[in-house]
Amino acid sequence: MKNGRILVVEDEGKISEIVKAYLEKERFQVTVAETGEKALSALKQGFDLIILDLMLPDMEGEDICETIREDSDVPIIMLTAKSEEEDRIKGLGIGADDYVVKPFSPRELVARVKALLRRSKGTKDIISFNNSDLVIDAKRFEVRKKGETVVLTPTEFKLLQCIADHPGQVFSRLQLVNVILGYDFEGYDRTIDAHIKNIRHKVEDNQKSPFYVKTVYGIGYKFAGSPDED
Ligand code: CA
Hints:
By secondary structure, the protein is an alpha/beta fold. It is built from eight helices and twelve strands. It has helices spanning 13-25, 36-42, 61-71, 85-93, 106-122, 154-164, 173-181, 189-203, and strands spanning 4-9, 28-33, 49-53, 76-80, 98-101, 126-129, 134-137, 142-145, 148-150, 171-172, 213-216, 220-223.
């Protein structure tokens, strides 16, 4: 399972290679376009997010951004060497969602990608599973079990939302730590078990034989509900 498809528009091979490697490590599927023209023709493949360098050999990043925005609201992160406040504001004004100033840490870029994807997902969606037995309402930060509202702590909600967004995908404890804290912290991974126990207590019919949140022995957890059709 992939986390999403990302288009990296960047003419400097050294930078795009590093960005690609970091994103692939996080299970994103990455396509690189070295020119504006290639980027625009790649668009029809459909991407979940675009990382767009402002300085390209054939086109201005701003123009590409505006062209994309004519018929798509795909999240865009601009890469810019321009650190002037004015230029940043301009970038956001023409429809970019976020920007990262060069030189940047690839790790920070990946964090921004994830945050932006979460944000763009979080603004819609009520996800419902097994004929509305379990409903996760990201807009209201609410979970409903058999129609009844269940109160989850923000951490529990984040964890459940994360795994439920990717049914069947196995998450290690460390990945889930990352979801909660935004970074890896080995010492924290056992607390994931405690959070999962609480979530099960709230959403499972039978905690001894959980239906939704399954343990994957030796690795971590996965979500086993089946999403309802819209
Ligand atoms: Ca460039």
